[in-house]
């Protein structure tokens, strides 16, 4: 690739997530050349993917083109491509658009969905780590209600409207709660043969409580709120099989047409091709300075790194804050070394925990900020404010706040396009002999509400 000057220090950044973007931005006023490579042309705020998957937000609300983010920074060159190999000895990065040499390399490739060695589950249980994943879940979710509207076979309808979410972390809790809201509040008013009690939402986790990393009192609160909403929660159980007919949990089989996976993450496949140590989750093991042992010019940040807090000895969490902090930390080390004012020994990374949050449902979220734990409407407001702050661009923030306010007041979701294959599969077409509880129960209830 062409460079504006060959004698400037060269930094290659792989990945345009929070880690990679913060590394690049840190060199805004520095005499360096940066090449940022990503297989997508956009920066994505993953914590809000579940809202795209359930129709509350559009994909463009939570993503921004990388070139737009960095267009004013003239020392950054953005390349669209997927890295295929890294040669540590020759200091070369090879990708499907060519190859780049570097003085410093920052690997910020993020993480992908983990199926714990059962990748065959993926076709039946999409994860939630990309916009494509979110759109696939949205397609399946809203297509299920279209099918159920005209499905007269009771067993087939129950299977269509059974949604199993695997994984009780923040993503699983948020997704399960949002699906239940769609089923009970958003859609029944618009359908004729579906009422709010028809959909069954099941949340499965292998641990003893939901949102395990959060305090126990907030885990109990999350479970209480979800159960009150009607979400069925199965704890201390593991998924042993996922097929087109449903999911097997231990010895129990749940007939479900829709299974969504939120159970874990792992590093990208690139990590396995490198001559360095990786953990069981394919994350690259780094030293206290976030560099790869034996290669002080190569750093790993964010979800791609297996890093340990130098003060506490605890793993650095795979959160947006972890990526931002490690990215800025690494950038500062590189700047000091480039400018010739580096200390004799590199500093060791220590994570500053700013707290954690999870949305449970409409007007309800849980939050842990230090020793302060709270939930309910205050948690919901805090969650909204924090997540809006992380979004890139004023337009995105303004649009998201408007959508949230509109959806909160009117209990609706406006981003409900069914993309991809819209074909419905119906076993027995609805006719006048539809079960009476569907024809009269919901309509009678609705008639009384309307007047």
UniProtKB/TrEMBL annotation:
Spans through the membrane: 372-394
The organism of origin for this protein: Gimesia algae
Gene3D superfamilies according to UniProt: 3.50.50.100
Family recorded in the similarity comment: Belongs to the NADH dehydrogenase family.
Documented EC number(s): 1.6.5.9
Any GO molecular function: NADH dehydrogenase (quinone) (non-electrogenic) activity
Reaction it catalyzes: a quinone + NADH + H(+) = a quinol + NAD(+)
Protein known as: NADH:ubiquinone reductase (non-electrogenic)
Boundaries of every External alternative NADH-ubiquinone oxidoreductase-like C-terminal domain copy: 354-408
FAD/NAD(P)-binding domain location: 10-327
Keywords, alphabetical: FAD, Flavoprotein, Membrane, NAD, Oxidoreductase, Transit peptide, Transmembrane, Transmembrane helix
Any Pfam family hit: Pyr_redox_2
Keyword Glycosyltransferase: no
Any coiled-coil regions, as ranges: none
């Amino acid at each position: 690739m062409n460079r504006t000057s060959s004698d400037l220090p060269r930094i290659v950044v792989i990945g345009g997530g929070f880690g990679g973007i913060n590394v690049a931005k840190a060199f805004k006023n520095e005499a360096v050349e940066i090449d940022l490579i990503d297989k997508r042309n956009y920066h994505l705020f993953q914590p809000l993917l579940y809202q795209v998957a359930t129709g509350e937000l559009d994909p463009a609300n939570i993503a921004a083109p990388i070139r737009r983010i960095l267009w004013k920074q003239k020392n950054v060159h953005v390349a669209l491509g997927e890295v295929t190999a890294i040669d540590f000895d020759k200091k070369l990065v090879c990708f499907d658009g060519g190859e780049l040499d570097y003085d410093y390399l920052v690997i910020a490739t993020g993480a992908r969905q983990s199926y714990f060695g059962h990748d065959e589950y993926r076709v039946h249980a999409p994860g939630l780590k990309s916009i494509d994943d979110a759109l696939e879940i949205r397609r399946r979710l809203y297509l299920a209600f279209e099918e159920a509207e005209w499905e007269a076979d009771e067993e087939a309808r129950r299977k269509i409207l059974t949604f199993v979410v695997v994984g009780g972390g923040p993503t699983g809790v948020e997704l399960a709660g949002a699906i239940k809201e769609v089923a009970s509040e958003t859609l029944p008013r618009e359908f004729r043969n579906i009422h709010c009690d028809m959909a069954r939402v099941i949340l499965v986790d292998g641990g003893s409580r939901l949102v395990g990393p959060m305090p126990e009192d907030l885990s109990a609160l999350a479970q209480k709120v979800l159960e009150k909403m009607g979400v069925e929660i199965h704890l201390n159980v593991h998924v042993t099989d996922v097929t087109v007919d449903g999911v097997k949990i231990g010895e129990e089989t749940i007939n479900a047409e829709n299974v969504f996976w939120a159970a874990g993450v792992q590093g990208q496949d690139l990590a396995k091709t490198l001559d360095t140590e990786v953990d069981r989750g394919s994350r690259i093991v780094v030293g206290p300075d976030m560099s790869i042992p034996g290669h002080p010019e190569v750093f790993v940040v964010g979800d791609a790194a297996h890093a340990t807090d130098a003060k506490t000895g605890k793993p650095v969490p795979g959160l947006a804050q972890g990526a931002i902090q490690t990215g800025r930390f690494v950038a500062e080390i590189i700047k000091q070394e480039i400018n010739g004012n580096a200390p004799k020994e590199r500093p060791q990374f220590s994570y500053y925990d700013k707290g954690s949050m999870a949305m449970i449902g409409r007007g309800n979220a849980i939050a842990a900020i230090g020793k302060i734990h709270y939930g309910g409407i205050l948690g919901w407001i805090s969650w909204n404010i924090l997540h809006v702050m992380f979004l890139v661009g004023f337009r995105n923030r303004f649009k998201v706040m408007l959508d949230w306010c509109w959806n909160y007041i009117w209990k609706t979701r406006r981003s409900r396009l069914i993309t991809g294959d819209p074909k419905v599969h119906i076993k027995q077409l609805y006719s006048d002999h539809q079960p009476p509880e569907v024809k009269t129960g919901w309509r009678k209830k609705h008639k009384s509400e309307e007047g």
